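Quick one, probably user error.
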């Protein structure tokens, strides 16, 4: 099932210390004309591939900055141009929730959105607005948004980004996050800094592993209470069910099922690829989704999987839960390619050998 990271606006009302999105002097917002074209192209694709569904993730920037009328217009385009295929489009959204208002609820329900993804940070001045990264005001607005979701029976889950400031208190952070009474789960990801670390938040793979490693035995002991906490839940699920239920960065399967569409109609492999100006597939105005999903440049992603199995990752016991890590993390401008595992790939191996296997007594095998 294809996943489209859909960024109709680059504008954001926050100034997070770790944001790796390219900061543009004039952030763009998708015109209504281009928005209509996008849904026409989605409909054309689904009419051809009526055995498939598309997950459309509204992303940003901050998607709530578009305002409720923008989403009402989007819904009008969906009903007008996707009458036969709209049941094949699953809408999702990633928002900071600080602009959530009751007026969004009805239109989101009409779009089939009943759960929103977000991010949260209890440490001061990591997520917030303005030059000073005002987290006090940000968090006030965030919880006001959460209350609106709860009052309307909307679910929510979040990503927690582990930064240098969190390293000294992993259990304090974990208990705080676990007590937010969220209806979904939360995921702990390492901060990824690709330019200058201006706010001194970067961490090493070893530091991330030790952070989640201290939390893991507590989670394991109270697993029934703390159900949806990743990366733990996913690793356990893959072992117990012998599956490969993984996020995009570890799945090794993004070659033909991921796409980014930006505010000017530019397309790329994913949001990271667009932010870094690599793996461009042209403009949605000029190409069909079928052409974009079958672009020859996608072959490199498949070739990478085969290459890693025979080289960097040959014989690795943890291939099924890592696949060499995110291809975009592996990209090297100097060598212009993806043909290497990432530094973060070793995070899985280190966590499994240092914490997971000794604590659980479970030996992971290929």
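Nope, works fine. Designed sequence:
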């Amino acid at each position: 099932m294809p996943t489209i990271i859909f960024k109709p606006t680059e504008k954001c009302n926050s100034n997070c210390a770790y944001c790796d999105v390219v900061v543009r002097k004039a952030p763009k917002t998708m015109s209504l004309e281009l928005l209509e074209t996008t849904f026409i192209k989605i409909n054309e694709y689904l009419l051809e591939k009526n055995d498939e569904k598309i997950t459309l993730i509204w992303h940003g920037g901050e998607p709530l900055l578009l305002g409720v009328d923008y989403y009402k217009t989007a819904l009008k385009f969906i009903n007008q141009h996707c009458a036969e295929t709209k049941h094949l489009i699953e809408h999702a959204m990633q928002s900071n929730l600080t602009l959530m208002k009751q007026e969004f609820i009805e239109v989101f329900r009409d779009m089939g959105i009943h759960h929103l993804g977000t991010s949260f940070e209890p440490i001061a001045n990591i997520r917030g607005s303005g030059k000073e990264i005002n987290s006090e005001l940000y968090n006030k607005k965030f919880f006001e948004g959460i209350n609106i979701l709860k009052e309307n029976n909307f679910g929510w889950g979040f990503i927690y980004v582990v930064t240098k400031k969190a390293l000294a208190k992993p259990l304090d952070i974990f208990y705080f996050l676990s007590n937010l009474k969220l209806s979904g789960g939360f995921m702990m990801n390492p901060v990824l800094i690709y330019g200058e670390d201006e706010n001194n938040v970067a961490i090493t793979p070893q530091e991330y592993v030790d952070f989640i490693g201290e939390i893991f035995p507590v989670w394991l002991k109270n697993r029934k209470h703390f159900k949806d906490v990743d990366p733990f839940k996913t690793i356990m699920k893959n072992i117990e069910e012998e599956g490969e239920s993984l996020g995009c960065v570890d799945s090794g399967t993004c070659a033909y099922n991921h796409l980014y569409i930006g505010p000017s109609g530019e397309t790329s492999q994913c949001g990271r690829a667009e932010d870094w100006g690599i793996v461009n597939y042209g403009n949605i105005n000029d190409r069909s989704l079928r052409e974009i999903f079958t672009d020859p440049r996608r072959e490199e992603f498949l070739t990478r999987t085969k290459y890693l199995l025979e080289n960097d990752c040959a014989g690795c016991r943890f291939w099924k839960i890592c696949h060499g890590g995110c291809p975009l993390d592996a990209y090297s401008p100097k060598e212009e390619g993806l043909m290497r595992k990432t530094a973060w790939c070793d995070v899985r191996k280190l966590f499994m050998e240092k914490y997971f296997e000794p604590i659980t007594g479970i030996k992971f095998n290929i």
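The chain has a mean pLDDT of 90.
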